[in-house]
Amino acid sequence: MLKHLHVQVLIGLAAGILVGHFAPVFGVQMKPLGDTFIRLIKMLITLVVFCTVSVGIARMESLKQAGRVGFKTLL
Fold first, then answer.
1. Are 29 and 36 in contact (CB under 8 A)?
2. I need a surface site. Which of 13, 43, 56, 75 has the fewest CB within 10 A?
3. Dist CA 13 CA 4 (whole Å)
4. What parts of the sequence cross the membrane (predicted)?
5. Per-residue confidence of the chain (75 residues) as pLDDT tens digits?
6. How far apart are CA 25 and CA 27, in angstroms?
């Protein structure tokens, strides 16, 4: 059961709530770790979007399709 990602996320959420409620000082000390995690997620999202768009354009067979994809992306 612990191999499922949604179960792990729920356990982490519950642990965060419990730490925040019962040990708020420790929770504040963990803030740099949380901020670093958020920065890493933002960095990965940017990379995944760039790679997805790049591969999508590379697989286009005509420039007309690439133009449509570019227009939709900007919109």
1. no
2. 75
3. 15
4. 37-58
5. 889 999 999 999 999 999 999 999 999 999 999 999 999 999 999 899 888 888 877 777 776 766 777 777 777
6. 5
